[in-house]
Amino acid sequence: MTTRAVDPTFLALPLDRLADAALDVAKTRGATYADFRVERLRSHIIIARDRELQTSVESETVGFSVRGFAAGIDLTIDAVTAIARRAVAVAESLASLNTEPVALADEAVYNDTYVSSYDVDPFTVAEDEKIHFLLSLNERALASKLIDRVTSHVMLVREQKYFASLAG
């Protein structure tokens, strides 16, 4: 297997600038810890029933969150700062419910990337080839005469994540 690079279209997003904007709001408002996350999910789901294609759907979603208290999908500085303000307001309003202070474990600051290894990027394979593959599996199963109905499916996902925190 070959290790691949992080998707350059994901890295082209203004990730560091957005993180700086969100974390600056949190720090200015007095947060001792905050984190900012961006996630992009690309998926392709194909379902074949017997000798027919049932569905083939590709989708992509992108969103961000500030410490899980607030989230959004508009990757602009204005939207991120507004969401960061909302996240801090939610955290402040919930703080009185906590009877014990939260103490985070000491952890090193990481600046790293990880990409799973794979031989073939399934998003570079033509849709027709993927559909043909599933239908041929179904045909083989039906030809065995051991079964009379078959459904096969594949769900392909490419997950891209970015994380930054006040810790570093």
Architecture overview:
The protein is built from four helices and four strands; from the N terminus they run ααβββααβ. Strands 3-2-1-4 form a four-stranded antiparallel β-sheet. It is elongated and about 70 Å long. The two termini are 33 Å apart. It has 168 residues and is of the alpha+beta class. Helix 2 packs parallel to helix 3.
Radius of gyration: 22 Å
Main sheet record:
4 strands, antiparallel
Mean pLDDT over the full residue set: 93
Which overall shape is indicated by the principal axes computed on the Cα atoms? elongated
> Approximately what portion of the residues adopt beta-strand conformation?
25-35%
* Largest beta sheet: strand ordering: 3-2-1-4
- Tell me the quaternary state: single chain
* Intertermini distance: 33 Å
Give the SSE string.
HHEEEHHE
Give the class from helix and strand content and strand pairing: alpha+beta
For the secondary structure, the number of strands is: 4
User: Into which percent range does the helicity of residues fall?
Assistant: 25-40%
Number of helices: 4
Name a few traits of the molecule.
168 residues; alpha+beta; four-stranded antiparallel β-sheet; elongated
Compile the SSE list and pairings.
Layout (H helix, E strand, L loop, with lengths): L7 H4 L3 H14 L6 E15 L2 E15 L3 E3 L4 H19 L31 H17 L7 E15 L3
Antiparallel strand pairs: 1-2, 1-4, 2-3
Helix pairs in contact: 2-3
